[in-house]
Write a structure and sequence with these properties.
Distance between the termini: 43 Å
Order of helices and strands: HHHEEHEHHEHEEHEHEHH
Number of helices: 11
CATH class: Alpha Beta
CATH architecture: Alpha-Beta Barrel
Number of strands: 8
Number of domains: 1
Strand content: 5-15%
Strand order of the largest sheet: 5-4-3-2-1-8-7-6
Helix content: 25-40%
Radius of gyration: 19 Å
């Protein structure tokens, strides 16, 4: 799939971005922005899926000192697919899919910027579906096994790795050609992850009510708010109650790209109000929104709203995602 004589459509943009980053760095004196585009740590499958160009952008004013920074406290705050270069004063959390060969170096860079990350090992769901478009546990295990030879245990121990994000929306039949993944199968995925990495938290992106039982090997669920979920205060209270009853930790966040009314992008005021409601609960262990988009996040009002929520997240008590 990756061996081709054709030049990918995004390659000229990568070359241009690399050149621009070098020129900018040579002309700068403060050394606050990373010159290494996040493409270095991306899973090649993600690059083939066209995810590379947007990840090359650097966040204006988001650089950190070249000296190692420590996690600021509270709970991690950020987005999915957040480039390493964006970790800093506004964002210190992310959901990432990193190629095994770059994992240790990317984790070191994220830690140096005071960040924490939830890691997706299996990658795009198309790699672990069978010929009928249904979930294949065997194929999922093969994808996860790519990381067995990588020693990242120190980053689990020091908290840089928040957890292993095993799968996205197993409950949605649209993702799996009409056949949702059973909760017992997801718990089996957690068991397999624990066999490989016993101390790493297991996370699944589905609301805790998906589980009709207390899962044994899944540590945390994920509640992502969008407008059609109804009143945000009622929403977070229900998600916390469901998580507590099942002994699960809870990651929260906003669908900022398609979560407004009629699937629009959220406005700055919606981000502030709805995000504040999610953070009104002391139960969530991280606030990771969907998803990174450089142009959107670079808007002045959106930056201000995100900074406002980051400050709230930082004032929260640090909490493990392992639940009870």
């Amino acid at each position: 799939m990756f061996c081709t004589n054709e030049t990918p459509s995004w390659m000229p943009r990568i070359r241009a971005a690399l050149f621009a980053a070098v020129v900018t760095t040579l002309g700068a004196c403060d050394g606050t922005n990373s010159v290494a585009p996040d493409v270095a740590g991306a899973d090649p499958a993600a690059l083939a899926d066209g995810e590379a160009p947007d990840s090359l952008a650097l966040a204006p004013g988001e650089g950190v000192s070249l000296a190692t920074a420590s996690f600021a406290g509270g709970i991690p705050f950020g987005t999915s697919a957040l480039p390493t270069s964006w970790f800093g004063s506004r964002y210190n959390g992310a959901l990432r899919n990193i190629w095994p060969g770059s994992l240790r170096s990317e984790l070191a860079a994220i830690k140096a910027r005071g960040g924490k990350v939830v890691l997706m090992f299996a990658g795009n769901e198309k790699y672990y579906k069978d010929g009928s478009g249904h979930f294949s546990l065997d194929k999922w295990k093969q994808r996860v096994n790519r990381f067995r030879s990588v020693d990242f245990s120190s980053y689990v121990k020091d908290g840089t790795i928040v957890g292993h994000y095993m799968i996205d929306e197993p409950n949605d039949p649209a993702n799996w050609n009409g056949r949702p993944i059973s909760a017992s199968t997801v718990d089996e995925m957690g068991r397999y992850s624990k066999q490989l990495w016993p101390t790493m938290t297991t996370v699944v992106r589905t609301e805790p009510g998906y589980f009709g039982f207390n899962p044994r090997y899944v540590d945390a669920a994920w509640a992502q708010y969008l407008h059609r979920r109804g009143d945000v205060g009622s929403y977070i209270r229900k998600q916390v109650s469901d998580a507590q009853r099942r002994g699960l930790g809870l990651v929260v966040g906003l669908n900022v790209i398609h979560g407004g009314p009629n699937k629009t992008r959220m406005t700055a005021s919606q981000i502030r109000d709805w995000g504040s409601a999610l953070l009104s609960s002391s139960y969530p262990c991280a606030f990771i929104s969907w998803q990174y988009n450089a142009n959107y996040l670079n808007s002045g009002s959106i930056r201000d709203a995100m900074s406002y929520l980051r400050n709230k997240a930082e004032r929260r008590s640090t909490r493990s995602c392992r639940g009870s």
